[in-house]
Amino acid sequence: MNLTERFDRALLYALQAHRQQYRKESQIPYFSHLLSCAALVMERGGDEDQAIAALLHDVAEDQGGNHRLAEIETLFGERVRRIVEGCSDTLESPKPPWRERKESYLEHLSMSDDDVLLVSLADKVHNLRIIYMDYQRVGDQVWDRFRGGKAGSLWYFRSLLEIFRQRYPHPMLKEFERLLEYLEAG
Predict the structure, then answer these.
(1) What phi-psi label fits residue 4: left (phi over 0), alpha (psi between -120 and 50 degrees) or beta?
(2) Which value, in Å, is the radius of gyration of the alpha carbons in the chain?
(3) With 0-12 CB in 10 A as exposed, 13-18 as middle and 19+ as buried, what is 105?
């Protein structure tokens, strides 16, 4: 893959959008998650649009809704906007209740195209990595930071796994499944 100045602009755009945001219950800049997602997409054969969308996948959901989507389309094109929109579980503010949002996202994901599935899978794999590492450190307390708690979060990740298995049997699924099984057994 050949990265162009579009990718450079997306890096800066994502950094500026998320500069004041941190991972849940930590002092880790949220931007690290976006870099990790983009790396997973690139390492798994994604193209520049998909890598850019991985950098921007939470901008609309967390930092401005439809206004951000329009800006993303202007700056990075319709395909990137479509992927970012497809990876967002809501653009509403305030956000709807957690379970309702997750059920809606699962339904949407079950009909999504491969572009959205790749970026979403990279996002979820990285989320599971972070949860796994935090679980090693604090045990079941890790679930206190999530609105769904342990049971709801594990239900959501298990539901995601089933959709990815059916719709997008990608090699990253092995890592997803291994991490999820560890967390379910804990």
Answers:
(1) beta
(2) 16
(3) buried
Give mean pLDDT, residues 99-111: 97
Any residues with CB less than 8 A from the CB of 77 and at least 6 apart, and which?
49
pLDDT confidence bin for 98, thresholds 50/70/90: very high
pLDDT digits (tens, 9 = 90+) for 55-94: 999 999 888 889 999 999 999 999 999 999 999 999 998 9
Question: Cβ(122)–Cβ(56) under 8 Å?
Answer: no
**Extents of the domains making up the chain:** 5-185
25, pLDDT greater than 80: no
- Domain 5-185 part of CATH 1.10.760.10: no
- Its pTM surpasses 0.90: yes
| Residues 6 or more apart in contact with residue 136 via CB below 8 angstroms | none
Residue with token string 């049997």: 169
Exposure string for 33-52, b = 16+ CB within 10 A, e = fewer: bbbbbbebbbeeebbbbbbb
Do 105 and 117 form a contact (C-beta atoms < 8 A)? no
What DSSP string runs through 135-148? Answer: HHHHGGGGGGGSTT
Q: Are 127 and 36 in contact (CB under 8 A)?
A: no
